[in-house]
Amino acid sequence: MTDRKTELAENLAKVEDRIAAACAAAGRKREEVTLIAVTKTYPASDVRFLSELGVRHVAENKDQDASPKAAECADLPLTWHFVGQLQTNKVRSVVCYADVVQSVDRPKLVTALSKEAVRAGRDVGCLLQVALDAGESGRGDRGGVGPGGIEELAGLVADSPGLRLDGLMTVAPLTGEYAGRERAAFERLMDLSTALRRAHPAANMVSAGMSADLEQAVAAGATHVRVGSAVLGVRPRLG
Ligand SMILES: *Cc1c(COP(=O)(O)O)cnc(C)c1O
C-alpha cells in the first residue's frame, strides 16, 4: 500500500472502532449506522483509496470541487452525498452526480432540484437540513430550515417529480440554546424525525454527527454520520 492509503486505512479503523463502541454503548446494531466519508478539499485519489478500503458513501460540499472529482471516480461503487449550502445555479451540475442532497432547506431549491432531476433523468434523495439555531421558523446562519418549516418543505419534496424524501440532517449549532449541547441537539433532531415519519414513513434517514461528535449522534439515534477530518486528516484549508 502507498503511505497515504495506509494512513487512510489506519484512520478508518479508528473511526470504525469509535462507531462500533458508540453503537455498543447505545445498544444499537453496528449496521444501523452508515459512515459517510466527507472528502471535501481532498483529491480524487483519496476517494479511490477509500473505495478500495470499503467506504461506500462519500460527501462533498462545493460543486466546483465535487463535480470533477465525481467524474474521475465514476467507475467506483459509491453513493455521493452533497452536504453544502447549495445555490440554485449549481443544481443542474449537482444532480448529475449527487445521489442524495442533504442540504435541502428552501422551496426554491426544491423546485430547482426537481426540474433538473427530471431533465437529467435522475432520482435524487433529499434530506431536509434542519437549523436548530434558527428559532422555529427562521433560517440558520449556515443554511437550514427552522423546525417549524419542516412539514411544509417535506410535503413539497414528496410531491416533486425526480425527488425522494429521505429524511433529516443537521449540524450541531455553534450558537443558540443548543450551543455546546450536541447530544441534546441530536435528540431534538430525532424527535423531529419521529414527527416527520408519521406523514412520511420512508423518510427514515437521520444524518448527524461529524468527527468531533459522532458518539453523541449515534447515542441519539443517527442513521448516518458524516466524518471528514478523522478519516482524511485536518483540512489544509477551510471548507
Ligand atoms: C465538513 C463537513 C462535515 C465533516 O466535518 P469533520 O469535522 O471534518 O468531520 C460534516 N458535515 C458537513 C455538512 C460538513 O460540511
Automatic annotation (TrEMBL):
<dbReference type="InterPro" id="IPR011078">
    <property type="entry name" value="PyrdxlP_homeostasis"/>
</dbReference>
<comment type="function">
    <text>Pyridoxal 5'-phosphate (PLP)-binding protein, which is involved in PLP homeostasis.</text>
</comment>
<protein>
    <recommendedName>
        <fullName>Pyridoxal phosphate homeostasis protein</fullName>
    </recommendedName>
</protein>
<dbReference type="InterPro" id="IPR029066">
    <property type="entry name" value="PLP-binding_barrel"/>
</dbReference>
<dbReference type="GO" id="GO:0030170">
    <property type="term" value="F:pyridoxal phosphate binding"/>
</dbReference>
<comment type="similarity">
    <text>Belongs to the pyridoxal phosphate-binding protein YggS/PROSC family.</text>
</comment>
<keyword id="KW-0663">Pyridoxal phosphate</keyword>
<dbReference type="Pfam" id="PF01168">
    <property type="entry name" value="Ala_racemase_N"/>
</dbReference>
<dbReference type="InterPro" id="IPR001608">
    <property type="entry name" value="Ala_racemase_N"/>
</dbReference>
<feature type="modified residue" description="N6-(pyridoxal phosphate)lysine">
    <location>
        <position position="40"/>
    </location>
</feature>
<feature type="domain" description="Alanine racemase N-terminal">
    <location>
        <begin position="13"/>
        <end position="236"/>
    </location>
</feature>
